[in-house]
Design a protein that fits this description.
The complex is a heterodimer of chains A (260) and B (278).
Chain A: E1 3-14, E2 19-30, E3 34-38, H1 45-52, E4 60-65, E5 68-69, E6 74-78, E7 84-88, H2 91-96, E8 98-101, H3 113-124, H4 129-142, H5 158-170, E9 176-180, H6 188-203, E10 207-211, H7 215-220, E11 224-229, E12 232-237, H8 239-244, H9 249-258
Parallel strand pairs in A: 3-10, 3-11, 8-9, 9-10
Antiparallel strand pairs in A: 1-2, 1-4, 4-5, 6-7, 11-12
Chain B: H1 4-11, H2 14-47, H3 55-61, H4 69-75, H5 79-93, H6 96-107, E1 117-118, E2 122-123, H7 124-151, H8 155-163, H9 168-198, H10 210-221, H11 225-253, H12 266-276
Antiparallel strand pairs in B: 1-2
Classes of the chains: A alpha/beta (260), B mainly alpha (278).
């Protein structure tokens, strides 16, 4: 399996280093991975995820995505014939390939569902309008919301909004999907429908990084689990290893609180 | 006092009021246009993070220089934003009349403005300083309104747009400004109405707007009450529809606000798409 994102000693400090949200995280994300990040609140999970597409600008460290260090303004790319070329890193280009789903959905309230989905493909990828709409309809059918194409976000339930947010990100055909606590703002009975969509996505082979408190999802769908605490990566392994045979005390303590 | 003869005498000069009306409308329309453009630029500048001395912060971080202190403050200094702030504060803190006189008697004193007449009667060399003064003044006020509108939009909207690969400019154009302008439309309506009313101050530098007509009619008929009544009516007929028209747009833009609101129809979307296609 090839590495898609390589995170190297990632640091994020606030208040001139007084608060260390991320304190040296190193991890490789491979193609096809479903990586679930768990940990107590304030452990830096979300900061880590948001750093991956530079919504948070890291204080130090590298994020190498598809061979390009996206934390730098310029990157050196080695071409096939061995020559090295210095190119400007356009973060917008890389963000297109990293879909992101937020805790609070962040749909555009002034646009219909269809416009929410087609805006970025049309404006950023210069896709034709009817082409984009046909594609959006296909995705909407996949999540069972084709009849709501002309509705506004406020007319949907939380679970529906989050499913739209997922397919909106999929419209850009990303190579990796980042989920930032996608079910934390949902009513309990709506969590299932969103997790179902995510599970299907994982089965289709999408690379995913998921920050979540849904331990059931981590066990069932994840193939790697990261445990973070105090901005550090404390333990990493398969779901089986982490949940049934935890090594560090922080993880044991955490699991005793969340697994009843 | 008001009298029938007074009105009869005043009505003989209705054409002066018509000219005044045309002048006031063109004065306000140009002010709204230039003021709004200026305000948009000012708001963007004030929200930008154009820190030219940013490179200094790395030295500070490497402890080559003392942490905190002057150098770090300088590294966070945004000169463009600073000057925009000074501009807004100065223009909001001084009377419009003073600004108008400074621009007419000092700034344009040396400028040899062409002496032609707009619509055959508006003297351009007085009209232009009026437009400039009003635009600069209303730009300062409008920029505050626009800035507050942009800042009222949840940061998650920008994050969502940027995570989809949109540039900062696309984010502003398609996501932030449409929502921001919808939120600030009542305040904008207020400012537009204020512009129409305050354009009367240009009478003092001899722009032939409605108050100029009042003064002329007064000079010709020796009655002041009747022309003032007519001027009041004319101003009201200008400002009242303005606020109504903006209220109409406010309703139109609030499509996604109501849970029980109608879903958009395909036809509506097509039309909108055609309109926004430039």
């Amino acid at each position: 399996m090839s590495t898609l994102i390589s995170v190297n000693n990632l640091k994020k400090h606030y208040n001139k280093g007084a608060i260390k949200a991320l304190d040296g995280v190193t991890v490789d994300i491979n193609k096809g991975d479903v990586m679930v990040v768990i940990g107590p609140s304030g452990s830096g999970k979300s900061t880590f995820l948001r750093s991956l597409n530079l919504l948070e600008e890291p204080t130090d460290g590298d994020i190498i995505f598809n061979g390009v260090d996206i934390t730098k303004k310029k990157s050196v790319v080695t071409k096939a014939d061995g020559t090295k070329v210095k190119t400007k890193v356009n973060i917008d280009k890389h963000r297109q390939k990293m879909g992101m789903v937020f805790q609070h959905f962040n749909l555009f309230p002034h646009k219909t569902i269809m416009d929410n989905m087609t805006l970025a493909p049309i404006q950023v990828k210069h896709m034709k309008k009817d082409e984009a709409e046909a594609k959006a309809m296909k995705l909407l059918e996949r999540v069972g919301l084709a009849d709501r194409a002309n509705a506004y976000p406020i007319q949907l339930s939380g679970g529906q909004k989050q499913r739209i947010a997922i397919v909106r990100a999929l419209m850009m055909e990303p190579e990796v999907m980042l989920f930032d606590e996608p079910t934390s703002a949902l009513d309990p009975e709506m969590v299932g429908e969103v997790l179902e969509v995510m599970k299907e996505l994982a089965e289709d082979g999408m690379t995913m990084v998921v920050v979540t408190h849904e331990m059931g999802f981590a066990k069932e769908v994840g193939n790697r689990v990261l445990f973070m605490a105090d901005g550090k990566l404390m333990e990493e392994g398969s779901p089986d290893q982490l949940f049934n045979n935890p090594q560090c005390d922080r993880l044991k303590d955490f699991l005793s609180k969340v697994l009843i | 006092m008001l009298s029938a003869q007074g009105f009869a005498a005043t009505f003989k000069y209705l054409s002066m009021f018509r000219d005044g009306l045309i002048c006031t409308i063109s004065l306000s329309a140009l002010t709204v246009l230039f003021g709004f453009i200026l305000a948009l630029i000012l708001a963007m500048i004030r929200l930008s993070n154009f820190n030219v001395f940013r490179f200094l912060s790395t030295y500070s971080q490497r402890k080559l220089l003392q942490r905190g202190g002057f150098v770090l403050a300088l590294s966070r200094f945004n000169p463009l934003s600073f000057f925009a702030n000074v501009y807004v504060e100065v223009f909001r803190a001084t009377p419009l009349l003073v600004q108008l006189f400074i621009i007419y008697y000092i700034v344009f004193a040396g400028a040899d403005l062409p002496n032609f007449k707009l619509f055959g009667f508006i003297r351009f060399d007085r009209f232009l300083p009026g437009v400039v003064a009003l635009s600069l003044n209303s730009g300062a006020y409008l920029s505050e309104i626009i800035r507050s509108g942009i800042q009222s939009i949840d940061g998650g909207q920008t994050e969502a747009a940027r995570s989809l690969g949109m540039s900062q400019l696309q984010n502003m154009r398609f996501i932030i400004l449409p929502q921001a302008i919808k939120n600030i439309l009542p305040a904008i309506a207020n400012e537009f109405v204020t512009i129409i009313k305050e354009s009367s101050i240009c009478y003092t530098i001899g722009v032939q707007e409605i108050m100029y007509a009042v003064a002329s009619v007064k000079g010709a008929t020796f009655s002041i009450a009747e022309p003032l009544v007519i001027a009041t009516c004319v101003y009201f007929c200008l400002t009242f529809p303005t606020s109504k028209i903006i209220a109409h747009f406010e309703r139109k833009m609030s499509a996604g606000d109501k849970r029980n609101g109608a879903e958009a129809t395909n036809k509506k979307r097509e039309r909108k798409a055609k309109m926004t296609k430039v």
